[in-house]
Batch of 3 targets.
Target 1
Amino acid sequence: MTLGFRNIKLGKSSKDILIYDGPTPINIRQSLLDPNGPDYALCGIDGEFQHKGSVKGIKSSAGALVTPDGIRIHLKGKGKNKKAHAGKQNESNFFNILHEIIIKETPVNIIFVTPENKTKEYNGITDIVNDSHNTKLSSKSDFHLIKDDSVIPISLKGESSGFWGSEIKTFKAKIAPIIYNLILNNYIKMYRHPNNPSIWKINPPTIRIKLSDELAKDAIFGSDINEGNGLVVIQDFNENDECIKFEKDTSTIYIYCKEILSSLKDVNEHNYPWLIVTNHLGKPGLFNDTKYFEEPRRGIDLRSVTWNRAKSTKLEIIL
């Protein structure tokens, strides 16, 4: 098989292969499930994507494809100058640029602008606060824009993340009994991981669940970014980003974004949220209690993702 990457190296261990300068990790993960996707070079490799910390030897936050004989194919991205994707670095870049302007120029106006000239404007902003560590049930905001005594919640997503969030807390009570009944009726096979008996797996390895509009709102906006109160911003930001411009004469920060979402009507089919139930070694998961089985069964995760990530799964459930 020929892999379409410009830079492939062996790691320190004979079981590690490092891939540089390839497609973004999210596109590679999609390609494993969708041979018709944009990046299909790894589709023919038998293996399972694992995240950092879930398997010994995986140190990259992008994760690795692990084959049955233990070969780890690490995804290393395009180097230091690439734009940050969804995650802490993207959040940090966005926050640092805005915070520096706001503390010097307060109060400011902030206008989010898309390529289609769709805008969302917030006036009189005096501060920005990092809210990404908020563990409140169904909270989605990463930042709070402060205006007088009011708070405007902002959620930031990378352009290619394809991931709305981990939804164990939000949807476990609704989804766990459905999956349990499918297991009992043999539509889903559940078995112990062959190399780690404390972890359980399912087959099919990924199941998609179509959400009603009300549940889709919960997946995107949560309990804090209610429709009309706050914004979801889809954009990659680097450390000195030209997507953020300050106009001193009008005390206005213009933030140019791929997409902005303030209500479900802004969400196209590409970004519409689906739940996926999937194997994940690093997560306690859907059955990490004794409500359904005699002992907790770790390793089955529940996430909300975009349609592009969900569409290639074999089994679909409609709520």
Target 2
Amino acid sequence: MSTAVLAPDRSALVEQTGTRHNLMSAYTRLLGWPLIIKGSAVMLPAHLGIVGLSLRAGVGGEVNTVIERFGHHSPVISVPGTPTRWTFLTDDDDCTPGSIPFGVDLLAGRAHRIPLPPTDLDGDYVRWVNAPDPSRPIAGLSQVLAAVNQVVRPRRAR
């Protein structure tokens, strides 16, 4: 069986032979992420230091550009569905979000589990848009929310 695991010397996901257990071990060892495997799903609990911001993929592309322009790094996953959504993984930097724009969901707290690649959701797979990079810190929730607001607020004014 072929699964994707993180290469320790680069951020890109590479194909290696292994099992979901090996993948979970790589995520935990290289990134320090505590994960849950449930059936064919690899899930990140959203209450142990990492949270997610989920939004439409089209807006997500613009947000990702702003985050990179700020010099930050946020791993991003593409979650299949109608519409496809991107989830930005962020450090829970104790930010108390004031107002989250319409169409943006904060995935935080014990009730939320974020699917990670290669989770199969009804025959379509969660995939990395920006793979995590063990050598770079993950942007904080406040930084990613600032990027979201920079993109979304001007769109509303149009």
Target 3
Amino acid sequence: MVNTTSIPRFNLKAMQLAAGLKDGLSITSRARQDAENLGKDFEEVRKIVLGLRPSDFDHVWIKRDEKKRLILNAQGKEIAMDVYSPRIVAPNGEECSVYLKLMLTATAIAITSIQSFHQHRK
């Protein structure tokens, strides 16, 4: 479910700071596979996150169930992720925008977690 707010939930600079740390970036297996399909390894994805600009922000994604009810995390808060659409060079050499869904976790170490990384789907 998409929340069309134009205001990101997470501070981009804080996500980039976390992503720049050795253990400060995680990628789901699905997002990793999608990134590899676009010719991007872990470190290339890290560079893309570090290069995000505020103008790359697209919308906030909010997790809902099949009946469109909010799904809450263990703390009782909604699960929201910021979606960015940076442009990258695809394996065929052409430039394209990607759908990059990420969030900042607040654990002992801040981790920028990438949940999606793929070309826009129609």
